[in-house]
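Methods: example folding runs. The two proteins below were folded one after another, and each record is reproduced exactly as written to the output file, sequence line first and structure-token line second.
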Amino acid sequence: MNTRKLSAGDIIDARCTRCKEVLNHRIVAMVEEKIVRVECNTCGGAHGYYPPPAAKAAKAPKKTAAGSSTKSPATPRSRKDPTEADRDEWAALRPNMETERAAAYAMDGKFRMNSLVNHSVFGIGVVKQIIPPNKMQVLFQDGKKLLRCQ
């Protein structure tokens, strides 16, 4: 395989300090065989040469004196999507709701925890959290919403 030596004026990949990405650069200055200064072909900025980061190799788990690894094998955790968890919570609360007792939502209204709110767009909701000084988190069928209150 024939490898050509780099010289000033050649195009190489380097990390650009202005663009914050690995891009094509023109070599501006070299000291012996070491690249010292480059110019970005994208933004035109001249800066010191920063080589592209090397690909990281996967590390093997460390072994203990007994020969077993120090880390237990990773077991995948089942995580629920937050919106799915909100829908499940809504479905559990829905049968016990007395929707006729829901207070109409108004930004200047005062609400209590676990009280029902009737919003003109989102529908019936349950106040889950009061956030001082003037916000509340309400659980609707579509998920949790942050609303203004008194």
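Second run, written to the same file directly after the first:
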Amino acid sequence: MALNLRDFLAALGDDLIRVDDEIDPITQAGALCSASPRPILLNRLTGFPGWKLCDILVKDRKRQAKALGTAPQSVVRELSDRMFTRVPGGSKIVSDGPCKEVKLLGADADITKLPIPIHSEGDAGRYLGSGVTITKDPDTGVRNEAIIRALVRGPRKMGFWMAARHNWAHLMKYQERGLPAPMAFAIGLHPGYEILANFSGRHEGYDELEMGAGVLGETLELVRCETIDLEVPAQAEIVIEGYLQLDPARYVMEGPFAEFTGYLAGDKSPKPTIRVTAITHRHDPILRGCIEGSLPGSFSENAICSSIMRAATAWGVLERAGVPGITDVWCPPVHAGINLLIAMKQTYRGQAKQAANAIWGSSAAHVRYKHITVVDDDIDIHDYAAVDWAIAYRVNAGEDDIVVMPATFGAGLDPSTRRRDRNPALFGTGKWNRVLIDATMNLDYDPDPDLGGARFPPKVWPSDADIAAVARRWEEFGLKPLR
């Protein structure tokens, strides 16, 4: 059976918090979902009879593993392996699908009747932040997917912000031809596909949905849209169809929005417009929420999905570049892949620099990996205290442990760059000075006879496994451990 959101929700069992009280999705869902410790389903939405809203589906390793069909301890490693061995997966066009159960065309396609929420205080209005955006290259017919934000500006109008990358390149081709550019939003997919939609590297001849099919081990079912020349996942909960209006005379005001950066970002300014031509959805549809913003302990699922994908992509880049000794790669979700952590079994001086250069020289470096920190394999990169300790005692800036790569392209939403350097319509703006922090032990240090020939003293700071082993020994003697 084809993978879909409903089966995933059912598989969560008691992990899913079901809220049967009536909730206003526009004014209350943002705060409620962002504070939820587990996956949440809102069953009764004020003003939207028959609709439901879900969010926080893959915030922890256990549920990420469920979405990708792997073990919690190997989510990034397994995803990286599959992305470069099983991809692309198969897809097929089917004549009909669940996303076509209700069809609203033309004037009936009113997006204000969808329970699209206000995510955060300061947002310009109701934002769709959970839709997988689909465009198609008019030359090759190859699709591309991404997650972008779209502001509801009327019953059939949305303003949007999009970084200049693959989708934008498609839109520019339509503009050059003087043709309207078709775009669709597929909302409410199986979370595995949502994770893959965050891929931003090169994919020649296939799209992120077909990457997802390969990673998840299924054949993707697609249906043709009602009013535009695009194909969309048949198992989606909701599909919004429309055309991009790239004429500046038709731009609408868009922004700001509480972004993954933890700031209100994307200034209020005229932006391109989406003219909605159709909405199709399932009976009793479930809007997939994705409350945006990023604060410690309260980051969004957009940041989660992005961080998993960025880490897996970076690991694949390192392997293909032949960087030896990589034991773990991670992007903490609080910043959605802006910082990259790498653990390696170091065998020569400069290995960390080789890793950083491989990442920065790849297409995967698009608006991510601003700061790379490399540590030895005795450091748990998922424990920020351990990484901080390595930076404190294994970094000496005078020994070339800090390397700056100046004036590279960066993220147009990053407020650490000057406003004049940020233009989302131009790829390569948002100028960054990228930094490598080499927090590995310096193999150029002379072996110390007093340390048995080692270059660094033995580490006495215990790992979690060490602490657990000591605790077990205390319990054997009937004593309560100190920690």
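Comment on the second run: The CA atoms of residues 198 and 306 lie 6 Å apart.
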